[in-house]
Write a structure and sequence with these properties.
Mean pLDDT: 93
Helix content: 25-40%
Strand content: 15-25%
Number of strands: 17
Number of helices: 14
Shape: globular
Distance between the termini: 69 Å
Radius of gyration: 25 Å
Length: about 475
């Protein structure tokens, strides 16, 4: 017995020694040394941004607002005269805009900057919760208020603002740069981004890299990290609207209910999915994120991430407790619509649930459907992915050893200074997903420093952006244009 105890103690000490040594030698991939730059932003930039917010370029579920979008086009021509006098502009899909800025050397594949001009409408049920007019564009307490400040007119205006400023200085980029501003991203991009891609493919254009909206510099990202984290999205999750339907031969009177009804059968299926969620997938983009962030964590978090061979299940369990972190490592299923019943005393013969599904890299539309059918295991329930939106798989994961990633990373350091820069995964959808046939690598990053609370305004109530953040967006695109060499 004594020998056994000594053996166990020796094994534990050896295990502890291995863990400590692995933690001590746990370092992030090679970083670049870049100093933060001080850059002035034109005094009229804020008023131009405010004017753009006041034009309600809304995309409704079935259409874009043509009149306001044309007004927005006119506004851009008026406010950015050097761009419209120097760059080649084309209107695509009736309302989307493409700009071509010729560089000194056109033999290198150009860069493509994406953004979208449309915004979502204000939900009538939450309109009374807004503290200001949704399209006021007012400046209050250091913020510009209104729908589109973050999603995504901040990107459109800051790209143009940076370009106009560089043109005034006589700057010519090293290589060609394109801007593509979609007009219907919020409803799928079928008439905007898709048409632009068709145009590029027809012209046999290939791009070195794309940057689109996506992740941010987050101030309260992960436990154990004190610095802000600038996350560059390497990929985005897939998505589909899944419908579960129960069809019974008879309904009946509610005074004599059977043990199971269409509604209870459907409810049990939803409970099964809740209690048996999809498995954890530490995909490449998340692995790369932790490889950059983990070494800069404090103890004991650093020890856990340095020894994932032992603690990966514990890390996964901890991440699963956070809604945001859980979405990075799992396919998520969120029931959003329930239908069933016509009167309070009539048992419905049909009940239906719509589930919004976001698919993590490593899974596909087909594998998720297989998981759902196997988990529910009930022939009375039909499962369909042919709902509101066309199902799509996760995008390919872009490389980090690429001029696009390096240019974005360098620009983040130059604007935001002492932050951690790491790859990440975008859990929402962007126009960038449409461009895979014309680009080598796609990155999704919005150059703002915000908290998770600030992000709630996107598609929500009281959307706003600080003036300093908008200025940083202008500075970032100034540097990214300059750094693309």
């Amino acid at each position: 017995m004594k020998k056994t105890i000594l053996f166990i103690l020796a094994a534990l000490l050896l295990l502890l020694l291995v863990m400590v040594v692995k933690t001590l030698v746990y370092h992030a991939p090679e970083t670049i040394q870049v100093e933060k730059l001080e850059m002035e932003v034109d005094a009229g930039a804020i008023s131009r941004f405010q004017g753009a917010i006041r034009i309600p370029t809304i995309s409704y579920p079935d259409r874009a607002d043509t009149a306001t979008m044309l007004t927005f086009h006119e506004y851009l021509e008026t406010e950015f005269p050097m761009i419209h006098g120097s760059l080649e502009k084309q209107v695509v899909g009736d309302l989307s805009l493409v700009y071509h800025w010729k560089g000194k050397d056109s033999s290198v594949d150009p860069a493509l900057f994406l953004a979208h001009m449309d915004v979502v409408p204000v939900d009538e049920s939450s309109e009374s919760n807004w503290d200001f007019d949704a399209f006021s564009g007012e400046e209050v307490d250091g913020y510009i208020l209104g729908r589109g400040t973050m999603d995504d007119k901040g990107s459109v205006l800051s790209i143009l603002e940076a370009t106009e400023g560089l043109l005034k200085k006589g700057f010519v980029p090293e290589h060609d740069i394109y801007f593509a501003f979609g007009h219907d991203e919020e409803i799928g991009g079928e008439m905007g981004a898709v048409k632009i891609v068709e145009k590029f493919a027809k012209e046999k254009l290939k791009f070195s890299f794309i940057i689109d909206e996506g992740l941010v510099v987050i101030t309260d990202g992960l436990s154990g990290i004190s610095k802000p984290i600038g996350l560059i999205g390497l990929a985005e999750k897939g998505a589909m609207s899944m419908t579960l339907t129960v069809n019974l031969e008879n309904g009946g009177h509610a005074m004599m209910p059977p043990k199971e009804t269409a509604i209870t059968i459907l409810s049990e299926a939803l409970v099964k999915l809740k209690n048996s969620p999809p498995k954890v997938q530490f995909n490449e983009s998340v692995d790369k994120m932790f490889a950059n962030i983990g070494p800069q964590m404090k103890w004991p978090e650093k020890l856990f991430f340095a020894n994932q061979w032992l603690f990966k299940p514990l890390i996964a369990s901890s991440l699963s407790k956070s809604n945001a972190a859980n979405a990075l490592i799992k396919t998520t299923l969120a029931p959003t619509i329930i239908e069933g019943g016509i009167m309070d005393n009539v048992l419905p013969s049909q009940a239906k649930a719509t589930i919004n599904v976001r698919i993590v890299p490593g899974e596909t539309v087909e594998s998720v459907l297989e998981y759902v059918n196997a988990t529910i295991d009930d022939d009375r329930i039909s499962v369909s992915s042919e709902a509101v939106n066309k199902p799509r798989n996760p995008t390919a994961i872009s490389p980090t050893d690429h001029i696009g990633f390096e240019s974005i990373r360098k620009s983040i350091y130059e604007v935001f200074g002492d932050v951690i820069v790491a790859p990440g995964l975008v859990i929402a959808g962007t126009d960038a997903r449409h461009y895979s046939e014309v680009v080598e690598a796609t990155y999704r990053f919005m150059p703002v420093m915000v908290s998770n609370k600030d992000l709630e305004g996107i598609h929500g109530v009281n959307e706003k952006l600080s003036i300093e953040n908008y200025k940083n967006m202008v500075r970032f695109y100034n540097r990214l244009i300059t750094n693309f060499k």
